[in-house]
């Protein structure tokens, strides 16, 4: 069959209607947990983090945590809670899969936001707390790295394998 403009428009309209009215698209519209927009262009962090890396990390990994969280919490009381409360409650209730996906979604929200800007060095209450509790920002950073190594990298089995 020869394709003409009329056929092309009809096929495009049918494809759009199929997509618009498909169950997966309707389900996405009702998902309680939604990934925020990236607060800057994907290339804004280049050359430190490439646009390709940001696109992959934000568009695939971060989005994946939200998708999985919505699947796990569908028709549960968690679906009615703010993301932060899901993290806390799922941890308390030992809902490991929900906790892991909610915590990663929330953690990545903070990750992307940190690059929007702000003071170059700690100041105010953060600086005061770091000094009184850890002896300063440098020691706080050392403690954060040491503690995160115990929790995350060991679970992945990558500590000591040169991956960082």
From TrEMBL:
Q: Which SUPFAM superfamilies match?
A: Fe,Mn superoxide dismutase (SOD), N-terminal domain (SSF46609)
Organism superkingdom: Bacteria
Q: Which residues form the Manganese/iron superoxide dismutase N-terminal domain?
A: 33-115
Q: Which InterPro entries match?
A: Mn/Fe_SOD, Mn/Fe_SOD_N, Mn/Fe_SOD_N_sf, TAT_signal
Whether Zinc counts among this entry's keywords is no
Q: Which UniProt keywords apply?
A: Metal-binding, Oxidoreductase, Signal
Q: Which Pfam families match?
A: Sod_Fe_N
- Protein EC: 1.15.1.1
Q: What class of enzyme is it?
A: oxidoreductase
Which PANTHER family does its entry note?
A: SUPEROXIDE DISMUTASE (PTHR42769), SUPEROXIDE DISMUTASE [FE] 2, CHLOROPLASTIC (PTHR42769:SF3)
Spell out the protein name for this chain: superoxide dismutase
């Amino acid at each position: 069959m020869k394709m003409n403009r009329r056929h092309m428009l009809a096929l495009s309209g049918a494809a759009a209607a199929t997509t618009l009215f498909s169950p997966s698209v309707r389900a996405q519209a009702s998902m309680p947990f939604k990934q925020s927009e990236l607060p800057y262009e994907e290339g804004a962090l280049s050359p430190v983090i490439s646009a390709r890396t940001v696109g992959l990390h934000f568009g695939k990994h971060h989005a994946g945590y939200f998708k999985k969280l919505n699947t796990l919490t569908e028709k549960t009381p968690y679906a009615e809670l703010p993301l932060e409360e899901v993290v806390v409650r799922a941890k308390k209730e030992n809902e490991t899969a929900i906790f892991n996906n909610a915590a990663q979604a929330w953690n990545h929200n903070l990750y992307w936001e940190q690059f929007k800007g702000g003071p170059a060095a700690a100041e105010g209450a953060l600086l005061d707390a770091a000094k009184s509790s850890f002896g300063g920002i440098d020691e706080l950073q050392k403690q954060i790295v040491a503690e995160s190594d115990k929790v995350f990298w060991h679970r992945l089995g990558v500590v000591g394998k040169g991956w960082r």
